[in-house]
Amino acid sequence: MNFRQFAFKNVIRNARLYAGYFISSAFSVMIFFVYSMLAFHPELNLAESGGFGKGAQTGMQVAQYIIYVFTFFFILYSMSVFLKTRKKEFGVCIMQGMSNMQLKRLVFLENTIIGFASTVTGIAAGLILSKGMLMLGSSMLYLEHSLPFYFPTKALWFTFVAFMLLFLAISFFTATILRTSSLIDLLKASTKPKPEPKASVWLAILAAVLLLIGYAIAFIVRGTLVMFALLPVVILVSIGTYFLFTQLSVYIIHKLKKNKKLYRRNTNMLTLSDLAYRMKDNARMFFLVAIISTVAFTAIGTLVGFKAMLTEGVAGSMPPMSYDSYADNKQEQKHLAYIETGLKEENVTYDSIVIHNKDAKLKDKYAFNAISVTDYNLISEDKIRVDEGSAVLLQFKMDDFGYNRGKKDWSKGQTLTLSSGRKLQLTDVPDMSKDVRQYMTGNHVLVMSDSDFNALPKSKTDMDLYVFAMDDWQGTKAVADKLNTQLNADSVDAHYRFQARAIAMAEVNQLMGQILLTGLFVGIVFFVAAGSFLYFRLFSDLDSDIVQYRAISKLGLTEGELSKVVSTQIGLLFFVPIVVAIIHGAVALNTLQNLFPQISIVKEIILVLGTFFVIQVVYFLFIRANYVRKLKKVL
């Protein structure tokens, strides 16, 4: 057996340990390849892509850079951890006559083999799933035509070369900096007794205080203050999380062990005794998993939340279809005939109303958009009465990220003096309702009596809003595009505007589709990497666990008790950092909700965090069953 064969057999022998790292690396390669396949797609930049092809390609490239940089640091960290767990193996090799240079060459070859296998596997998986990924990409980008399948030669070579260079660079770097301890230290590395885990009570308290302060700030701040509080909260929570795992968790376990009644119940003695060591040993890994998972949860939750806010904003800020006709519009009747004919040809059932808008200018030169009470009652579910000489001022809440600055200036009972000298008393200053908002063009709308409205002087900014309301507005995209093209052909002046909610919603979906496609898979790569850390930590301790449980089973530990102890320990390993990440993510997404309080994203937050938690539960059940089976096989 030559040296290369020895390195290859070493990789095969350690396959169980390398499995999580290998799968995570291959998954990163696959996602990178998918992004490359989309970025290099020959038809993604064409006009039929809906005009968003170029932006989508840019998004794919950004995602590639993020994945590439993250994969570099992930592999570098994983390699350093793997090498620490193989000290005894390296000691045996040196005892058999292997030189330090040969040991470094062995590590280089092993890393290169794993890197090559991960790259090939990732590309192969990407090719197998390429048709489905193209369909998914077309769907998420809301392209008018699905992207056809093509053999991605350029993407294949680009991915292969990029990741082989990455793996070779890391293999060379890892082998170069590899330090070997004395032979005795290497051989005894796995048998050295671990010192009793200790925790500082002050650092434990500091962890709780930092987390509570960070959470409190995140819950309290509103509006634009959210942006200023973002960095301090991230710093406080990150430091608090580190001390949570290194100090507070160990301190809590020590307190639980001092509760004799709890400590001596069933198998708690075995669980708690080992738990303090595991928490201390895995503290940094828990911290990394929690932070990486928080980034994944928050990024995906934010993107999904923003999409929900934008779509709800579009639906609430414009009618299903409308035609704005300003003063001096000589094509008004012709255009209205176009629209009515087009809707009838497509068998679209609709109701039409007209809302007349004027400018109500005050003596201090401030101007409101004004409508008559008759027109207001046409569009509002809550009917009102406005007498001559009175007015109602509607205000939209979304000014200044949720702060309604208008409320500081206008109040019930205030008297407005128009430029004509006519006086109006505000009888009410309510918030603009959702059913009215879609028909309004400003954040402040003055509702006047019909006589006062008709008395307003005519202006070039006067506008008649023709609304075509239909229940199934989502199905009007085709006819809306046709009408939009037809009306734009007559665009010789700026005296009219045609709008359709279906067109605006499609543009929002395309824009957010690009961002979601970029962020979704990046977040999943982060989550899978976090899972691989947990897998590695668990199976790297398998040999020592076998020795421990074999000794305990001789004292009378039953299979049922063994399963219970193992399930508890694996459950804590898998769920403590993830639960912390979910709490962090929920607080972060709640802060996003505070930034835009008028639009609820609670459903989206629950969906994202709940989905990740369910995935983690499935992952835990699979790993637990596999781990318990391996233990029982040797006991």
UniProtKB/TrEMBL annotation:
Give the UniProt record's GO annotations in the biological process aspect: transmembrane transport
The UniProt keyword set, sorted, is:
Cell membrane, Membrane, Transmembrane, Transmembrane helix, Transport
CC terms in the record's Gene Ontology section = plasma membrane
InterPro entries attached to this UniProt entry: ABC-4_Integral_Memb_Prot, ABC3_permease_C, ABC_permease_BceB-typ
The record's section on Pfam families has: FtsX (PF02687)
Residue span(s) of domain ABC3 transporter permease C-terminal: 65-180
Q: Where are the transmembrane segments?
A: 21-42, 62-85, 106-129, 155-178, 199-221, 227-253, 285-310, 515-536, 570-589, 601-623
Does Cell membrane appear among the keywords? yes
Where, subcellularly, is it found?
Answer: Cell membrane
Tell me what topology the record assigns in the membrane: Multi-pass membrane protein
Assigned protein family: Belongs to the ABC-4 integral membrane protein family.
PANTHER family the UniProt entry points to: ABC TRANSPORTER PERMEASE-RELATED-RELATED, ABC TRANSPORTER, PERMEASE PROTEIN
Recorded protein name is ABC3 transporter permease C-terminal domain-containing protein
